[in-house]
User: Which sequence fits this backbone?
């Protein structure tokens, strides 16, 4: 690959999620595994331990969040709109 790599825009992710929901063969774990570390600064292992109860959707102006275990601590990460779109679709499968 040449040139600078860019993260997908919110609209691009929304189109991708809609297409993925229409085609169950599309694996949402791959873009989500890239989005969580790059956009949210979370470790790659966070995705492997997620459950539906760890995700807290956005409400009004309050962004969605994700609780996760980091060693003996439980931490909370605010989610970008893009990561939240991917995460909610991933967990709904």
Assistant:
């Amino acid at each position: 690959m040449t040139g600078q790599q860019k993260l997908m825009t919110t609209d691009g992710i929304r189109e991708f999620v809609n297409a993925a929901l229409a085609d169950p063969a599309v694996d949402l774990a791959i873009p989500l595994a890239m989005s969580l570390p790059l956009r949210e600064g979370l470790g790659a292992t966070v995705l492997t331990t997620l459950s539906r109860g760890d995700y807290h959707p956005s409400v009004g102006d309050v962004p969605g969040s994700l609780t996760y275990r980091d060693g003996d601590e439980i931490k909370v990460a605010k989610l970008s709109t893009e990561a939240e779109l991917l995460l909610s679709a991933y967990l709904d499968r």
